Amino acid sequence: MEIPAARLAAGVMANPPALLTRSRGAADLRFKLREGATDFDRLYQSGCLRVLMPASEPGFSPDAIVMNTSGGLTGGDEISLDCHWQSGTSAALCSQAAEKIYRSTGADVQISNRLNVRDGANAEWLPQETIIFDRARMRRSFEVDVAHGARFLAVESLVFGRTAMGEEVTSGFVRDCWRIRIAGVLVYADAFQISGAIATKLDRAAIGGFARAFGTILLVAENLSALIDDLRATFAAALGRAAVSQWNGILAARFLAPDGEVLKHDIALALNVIRAGRPLPRAWRC
């Protein structure tokens, strides 16, 4: 029997969750040494997450590219990623493009990342920015365990609206939690949360000082103090605000910027110093 259009529309409005398909994605990958080069040891992927390892540039470690084939996330979507760098491996884990968190009807986007870096490994977590749209809701967590003698570099950045398109995030919810352990000992715990009138809060001097984008670089490595002066000198060319400090065996650099382009410029300045002039992953240069 044919259902009248008016009745069908009324049913959609009354029961929207039953008609919506939520994005689910998971990836589990491990890097190992094969004939002196880093390669995949295990790769499991399901749902909207895919991982590729393009041919690396001569003389450089490989870049693994994570792709979200759903094109963005909204309320109720869930993705998780587990990555393990075995002893002696060297690889960067990047994203194909900026992740987009769209408006939610009430539920939260759930993102979970768990990283494990063994002794002698050189691990880099270098995704592009996460763009938060108006009325978006996101909960994201990072659990990282780094062995003694390993090197771990991480970049994370949040952009609240695309200012070039006149977008403003007037309301929403974002909670971003980091935990880093060195040999099982918790050395870094950070939880950022903002909700309600986000744009108004970001305008406050104690929170954002009118910034609409901010980022963090974290580095676990040896001889961190040698980088501090070089980074502070580099920040003289920053277009936004940037600062760096060191404690508990971790170097942390923080960035505030009026938009995503300025933020990316300033983060690239710091990465050029930390990565000793090695070019950024190709995904960043596209």
Record the SSE blueprint:
Layout (H helix, E strand, L loop, with lengths): L4 H10 L1 H4 L4 E11 L2 E11 L1 E4 L10 E6 L9 E8 L4 E6 L3 E3 L7 E9 L4 E5 L3 E3 L4 E10 L4 E10 L11 E11 L2 E12 L1 H5 L10 E8 L4 H10 L6 E7 L2 E8 L2 H15 L7 H4 L1
Helix pairs in contact: 4-5
Provide structural commentary.
The protein has 286 residues and is of the alpha/beta class. The chain has one domain (5-285). The protein has helices spanning 5-14, 16-19, 198-202, 225-234, 260-274, 282-285; strands at 24-34, 37-47, 49-52, 63-68, 78-85, 90-95, 99-101, 109-117, 122-126, 130-132, 137-146, 151-160, 172-182, 185-196, 213-220, 241-247, 250-257. The strands form two sheets. Strands 3, 4, 6, 7, 9, 10, 12, 15, 16 and 17 form a ten-stranded mixed β-sheet that branches. The protein has a seven-stranded mixed β-sheet with strand order 2-1-5-8-11-13-14, with no helix packed on it. Strand 16 and strand 17 (250-257) form a beta hairpin. It is globular and about 50 Å long.
